[in-house]
Amino acid sequence: MKILRLFLGVFFFAAAFGRGFAVDRHGGQLVLSALSDPKSFNPIVAKETSTTAITNLIFEGLTTTNGVTLEVEPNLAQSWEVSEDGKIWTFHLREDVVWSDGEPFTSEDVVFTFNKLIYNPDIPTSSRDIFSIEGEPFVVETIDAYTVRFVLPGKFAPFLRSMSQEILPEHRLAQVVKEGKFSYHWGLNTGPQDIVGTGPFLLEKYVPGERVIMKRNPRYWKEDADGSRLPYLRRVVYVIVQNGDVAMLKFQEGQIDYLSVRGQDYPILKPKERRGNFTVYETGPAFGSNFLVLNQNRGVNPETGNPYVSEAKLEWFTDVNFRRALAHAIDKQSLVNIVMNGLGVPQYSPMSPSSGYFYNPNVPRNEYNLPRARQLLKEIGIFDRDQDGIAEDEQGREIRFNLFTNAENTQRIQIANILRKDMEALGFKINFVPLAFNQLISKLDSTYDWDAVILGLTGGIEPHFGNNVWQSSGHLHMWYPHQPHPATEWEAEIDRIFDQGVQTLDREKRKELYDRWQVIVAEQQPFIYTVLPMNIFAVRNKFGNLNPTPYGGAFHNLEEIYIGR
């Protein structure tokens, strides 16, 4: 399931061409790069792609989305039925699936995952924001060893697609949950043999700061048309690099098999395709979003008794005209030209143009306009009163704050430096500090010790899977998470939209609701959107069964990929 996650800014992949006859395709490895170490190996508590890029290979859901057709297909469940009112779903599980330790996969694992993990209030998971209707959870129960029933409190439009939620093993985790240790379980010091899944690959070795090695799961349940057990590849290796420049160098040297191509890389790599024996693929604007976000958390640190955000900064950041002024100060087309070498598009709303049906292109656009930005600030009493080059508010407080982004992403570093200059043109004093990705995530979801951040979120085709971001109570409601009640009327309206949208089965009516959501976000600017890169990647010409798509990327069918030449 494409729950929105904090996006490190690196893609993970796979490749293909024609099949031979009676040829053993097993063996070989795919070598990828990652811009950060994983934060854990626990998919339930993960909020960042540095973790889920690994766990997505280990764990699976009842359904899956076809990377080419975008249709929902059976996976761990082989079939299902739904009642006439759309509220009772009965899944029939595959009986040939075993966990990687040899134990059978059963309906008890499904019930355990939902009732003991996702719906456990003591476990901090973003999935809980997805699997509820107006705060009410689903009833999940076993019928027999291979039949499980979901009773929904209301209609749930994206239910089948949401059933790609990873299922975890009860026999390995029940005692851990009972002891209250699950939130910290399967950390980076866990022995690979202790992480048990049903997916095509297993953790073989993790060397901090160097690499993550995944090995073929010999008990994986999928077979090819000839009855040969998948996956074909023996290993998938993630080489941890400091930044995109190092990844580019390693790709050119042949040390990695895939590269997420930045605009600055494109004119270097494209002419070398034939000589370098690789192919550059272009699939349109990237999914997801990139933005500047300001900390509007009204809460108080329980340990210190101090507010997370100072009174002055909270006044500035919660004023919509302040946020709109920042939006008007961003020259998005220049960002595309300078940072992405022209290979990108300005972004104005939460969904990418590649998202398809639910994307709304008709939202308010706070275009680059410095005079308008200064006017909006002056209307709320912010301007350079004493002509010292720094703007002050009505109380004479200078507009100063910290700006963070993840140090591994060179494009974000460039964007942050340009935005810092744009904000300084308004008289703001900005202290820009790049941080390691996992350190930045800790500030965002644990300590709340930050002022402004440039970051991104993964995206998809289903708006509801961003519920953990957009509901005011959500774990990833980044500017002010876990609100007991909506802090503003516009946030309350978005809550209502997501509550209604998930229960509305009429596709056109859902479209109207989510169009309105995108308009509200463009008006209120909780995320001040920047630019989206074009989704361009390079893959070595040695893999069979490669079928890149805009949604699935290069390696959506990783278990079918093999070394072809």
How would you sum up this structure, described in words?
The radius of gyration is 24 Å and the shape is globular. Strands 18-17-19-15-20 form a 5-stranded mixed β-sheet. A 4-stranded mixed β-sheet has the order 1-12-11-10, with no helix packed on it. It has a 4-stranded antiparallel β-sheet with strand order 4-5-9-8, covered by helices on one side. A hairpin with a 2-residue loop joins strand 8 (139-144) and strand 9 (147-151). Mean pLDDT is 93; it is low at 10-21. The protein has 17 helices and 23 strands. By secondary structure, it is α+β, with helices and mostly antiparallel strands. The longest helix has 18 residues, at 507-524.
Biggest sheet descriptor: 5 strands, mixed
Query: What is the CATH H-level superfamily of the domain at 289-533?
Result: Dipeptide-binding Protein, Domain 3
Tell me the number of strands. Answer: 23
Strand order of the largest sheet: 18-17-19-15-20
Structural class: alpha+beta
Mean pLDDT: 93
Distance between the termini: 33 Å
Envelope shape: globular
Determine the number of helices (DSSP H or I, runs of at least 4 residues).
Answer: 17
**What's the helical proportion of residues?**
25-40%
For the record, the CATH class of the domain at 289-533 is Alpha Beta
Beta content comes to 15-25%
Which residue ranges are poorly predicted, with pLDDT under 50 across at least 5 consecutive positions? 10-21
Radius of gyration (Å): 24 Å
CATH topology of the domain at 289-533: Dipeptide-binding Protein, domain 3
Query: Which architecture of the domain at 289-533 per CATH?
Result: Roll
